[in-house]
Design a protein that fits this description.
alpha/beta, Rossmann fold, two-stranded antiparallel ribbon, 21 helices, 15 strands
């Protein structure tokens, strides 16, 4: 189908312009009526955040998303473009995407007056109509609104007070689209004043010259509630002009959290053997984030991003890959020991309270991993007797092997523990399954018993009974997960 390329053709085609909030509302109404997903890929907000955003758009409100880091705020704002029309006609070459039927910039007004129906038309895609800015204290009014351009004035022979000399900032360039500002409290107060003035009255002063810019834009913002006092605040007149304030949150259920991590983590590796990630490994990784958000030594005001389990899973898979490549194994199965190997992906994802600083990030991370392991272990083995396994250690057995040991090496040692492999059936692992799966399941059981203080573990003996060495011994928090120094003791 031929698209109109001039203003005259656009008129003949019967095109009618509409304001961007009306456009968003109309497309949202159509999606709701057709039962189409509003924000594909955003998980866990179906009954909380999404309905509030829908209400804001239906009400034609500018809105702000308040939430801690890693709560999909920016993803949601960028997904708003799916509610825009696929294409939008604009005056060709206009810096601010002017409406051919209602231009607001001086240059387009003069061009249409001169060329009439022959005025050239171009089309903007959805992505071209989305403008995003990360707020920082050094952002100026020129960045957001614009500034006078002496070069334009000199070349065109215009007075500096003429609108034709303006170099437009980000907000005017979002005319007829969506303008998003991340971390709004970091924006200087005088810039926030410029924002609400142009939002409400449609005018602004640039270098002392009043400029009338009745912009048509949906303004959306994000902010961390703690930043109101930590680094800045949203000035009251601007808050008053933001129609809806919507609070985001971390996943409420383990299932939602696992779905997010599975969606975002890069696990589709190539060049290595077949990758099998046991469900209990995924659950422990996800529970680490839940435990960290409840841990007293971790600063709750800073939050624990959902990026933590995502990067942790990626690191866990990489650790398993490295082991498989070293030993030439065809099946890659992450184990509990790989979670400890992924600690570098954890320690940078949380801020510590004073008590946590004294203990150290590595020790806090080990504590959290142990708590997460215990939490998942109870889900599978809460009423399952483990006497035979524990008894093996109590009568003098101990288990020690390098962290990167081959599957066959560990499998041979684990077989000596009476009843251990039989217990893996509770994890959905059968005796006929690949030895790598059996080893991963058995190691998880031992880690769970260690986490619940049924057995102990240290560098010298590895896994052993608590009463060894002639005294009761609590699990050592700083013990390595699977000590690498000595060879197995038979």
């Amino acid at each position: 189908m031929h698209k109109p390329r001039t203003l005259g053709e656009l008129k003949k085609a019967g095109y009618r312009s509409r304001r961007v909030k009306e456009e968003l509302r109309a497309n949202l109404v159509r999606k709701l009526a057709a039962h189409e997903p509003i924000f594909p890929g955003v998980i866990g907000y179906e009954d909380t955040v999404v309905p509030q955003i829908v209400n804001a758009i239906l009400s034609r409100h500018n809105f702000i998303l308040l939430g801690l880091r890693g709560q999909a705020k920016s993803r949601i704002l960028r997904a708003l473009t799916t509610l825009l029309d696929e294409e939008l006609p604009a005056v060709a070459g206009c810096e601010i995407n002017d409406d051919p039927f209602a231009p607001i910039c001086r240059a387009c007004t003069e061009r249409i007056a001169e060329c009439g129906d022959a005025t050239a038309i171009e089309y903007l895609s959805r992505d071209q109509r989305y403008v995003e800015k990360l707020a920082t204290p050094d952002v100026t009014i020129a960045d957001i609104i614009g500034d006078l351009d002496p070069i334009k004035a000199a070349r065109g022979g215009h007075a500096l007070s003429s609108e034709l000399t303006i170099h437009y900032g980000l907000l005017p360039r979002a005319h007829r689209g969506i303008f998003a500002i991340n971390e709004l409290p970091d924006l200087a107060g005088k810039i926030q004043v410029g924002l609400f003035n142009i939002m409400q009255e449609g005018d602004v002063q640039i270098k002392g010259y009043p400029v009338r810019l009745p912009l048509d834009a949906m303004l959306v913002f994000t902010a961390n509630p703690e930043d109101y006092t930590a680094r800045g605040k949203i000035i009251t007149p601007l808050k008053d002009r933001i129609g809806s304030e919507i609070r985001t949150h971390y996943p409420a259920s383990l299932e939602d959290a696992m779905a997010i991590t599975a969606q975002e983590a890069w696990t589709g590796r190539e060049g290595v053997g077949k990758l099998i990630i046991p469900k209990f490994v995924r659950e422990v990784i996800e529970c680490i984030a839940f435990e960290a958000r409840e841990e007293k030594k971790v600063d709750k005001r800073s939050g624990v991003s959902q990026r933590m389990p995502i990067t942790c899973l990626e690191n866990v898979v990489s650790s398993a890959e490295q082991r498989a490549l070293t030993h030439g194994e065809e099946v890659v199965v992450p184990r509990s020991s790989d979670i400890y190997a992924a600690m570098p992906s954890l320690t940078g994802k949380f801020e510590l309270e004073y008590e946590g600083e004294l203990r150290g990030a590595d020790m806090v991370a080990r504590d959290i991993i142990r708590q997460a392991t215990a939490r998942v272990f109870k889900q599978y083995f809460d009423n399952v007797p483990m006497h035979t396994v524990i008894q093996w250690f109590e009568i003098g057995g101990n288990l020690k092997y390098p962290a990167g040991a081959a599957t066959n090496e560990i499998y041979g040692q684990l077989r000596k523990i009476q009843g251990l492999f039989e217990k893996t059936q509770m994890l959905g692992i059968q005796a006929k399954d690949d030895p790598a799966l059996l080893v991963a399941g058995a190691e998880f059981i031992l880690e769970g018993l260690y986490a619940l203080k049924k057995i102990s573990r240290n560098e010298e003996l590895g896994f052993h009974a608590e009463h060894r060495q002639g005294r009761a011994e609590a699990p050592s928090a700083d013990a390595s997960p699977l000590p690498p120094r000595r060879r197995p003791i038979n």
